[in-house]
Amino acid sequence: MRTVKEKIRALLSGREHRMVLALFAVVLMTVPLVAGPYGVIVMVDVGLYSIVTMGLILLMGFAGQISLGQGVFFGLGAYMSGIITTRCGLSPWLVLLVAAVAAGAVAIVVGRALVRLRGLIVAGVTLALNLVFCSLVVSLRDLTGGATGLPLIPRLPLGGFAPSNTLFSYYVVWIVAILLLVFSLNLVNSRTGRALKSVNLLAGGSEDTAQVLGVDIIRYKVQVFAVGAIYASIAGSLYAHYTGCIEPGAFGVHFSVLVAIMAIIGGMTSPWGAFLGAGLIVSVNEALREVMPAVVGGSTGAYELIAYGSILVATLLFLPQGLMSIWRRLQPQERFR
Amino acid sequence: MLDLSAILQFFISGVNLGCIYAAIGLGLFVVYGVTGVLNLAQGEFVMLGGMLTVAFYTAGTALVPSLLMAVIIAALVGAMLYRLIIYPARNSSGSTLVFLTLGFAFATEGIALSVWGWEFKSLPSFWGSPNIQLWGATIFGQTPWVVGTTLLLVIGLFFFFGHTIHGKALRACADEPLGARTVGISTDQMALFSFVLAASLGAVVGAVITPLTMTGYGVGMPLTIKGLLAALVGGINRAEGVILGGMALGMAEAISAGLMPSGYHGVIALGILIVVFLSRPRGLLVAPGKV
Questions:
Q1: What is the mean pLDDT of residues B83-102?
Q2: CA-CA distances (angstroms) from residue A257 to A252, B41, B99, B106, B230?
């Protein structure tokens, strides 16, 4: 007779890990049957944020590389999808893939320059890149619609018709999220993942040791930077088709910092952390939006900012490994799952 | 079109903007130099300085006491940031500390938004300084105050770091923390002091630029980013580098604002600086150590 602790430990490791994944997928697919329309809308947000956060977790947790510029790639995906589908009438699905490849290519160029810098400097430079990206979107008015936004982006089609938006978006977003989760878990255990574990201080490795062993750190870091950018771009494309209208404010510095907060709160040692972080922050956001105006009144944005800031500080001070570390304590022998 | 008065105008607005970025960069430099923390909340002190001065001023206080009270409050907030957030995590990695200052910046922005609302606020030019016409170029009445304040701050900082025992102790902490501790300098107190100094610097700048640029709850983060980029381009390890970087960004912004269609100047100036930084990551003034 196994104890509960042992059962959980077993579930979280090895073969039975797949069961957790399957269970996760089944639960998510049945959510719309249980939750009302409001719940589904919230869950679409969680899914979109989870995808971006997962990319950032791979980057920060495994490649040890900070980025406060995921908004750039999210925005690149969204604007490429928005502009190309409205102007050329190409299939949104095709454009989504093209945008992801393009974002990855941009990331390889930028990443090559960034990986040689010290971590905290990279944080500053990526923030600056995000600021430049937003000003650029505002400036290129003819192409992007400027500050007022780019409207009338078509829905994602399914066969010949465009199905009911929210529910369809929910399934698309979450199927993509689960596929990317599987990809992430495989990446973590791939050659790249193992190479990065040898580099990453979080995993007890050291860059110098890895270099001595002949691991080409820079190449792997750039690869993961590109992977993170592709995730963000895919989420951006999905977002553009889901909302139908995009404006530069959605891809600003605050978006990037928010994603970083989700990664930190969820825990950067596992791609699973993305869902915890995104879920928690989106829930807090929704709760504040519902509760605060009724209780205190005033503008809701203020309480969100205060909450995000305090949650980030509290997490870093009291639970620096994030929420996933609570689970990890149940299974000390398995670090990366 | 590109006559003397236009060139003079670019130069004047460039120096003006350059002073703002240099002053913010210096705030980052003081904290980074002494503690190794990249303080992404530096712009929030600029915002607080501006907003608090406006708040006291509109409540009927005279300008100077308003400014002084604003600086004192900002200094206390700076002390709080160090004591309550940075100090408990002083042994964490540099990236953790960056995120802590970011969290603090978010919370500060939120508090400012809930207290003062989202409207932009302004102050009249100090003592009603009139605009000055010089060979066809216009100098805003507030510009001499901005440039003068920055000059005073720079001279003050150089004197402080070069000729006072506290300044030398701060430099010792920056150069060799272990050595500083061995000779009896409290690195902890010096770190606290650097945060207070940076916060006060930021608040003074925030108050002085408000008549020119206006202030609002969200101005802090863009200012932090520009000041940081200026500092990085010039070399964040040296005050001269930070000032040079600030001036470079200010000039680039002023010239591109003059020559390019409106809206593009922010992109071009920041874009150029990012490219310059990425191609010379040690800064224009080469600093020792890895960047």
A1: 89
A2: 9, 13, 9, 9, 21
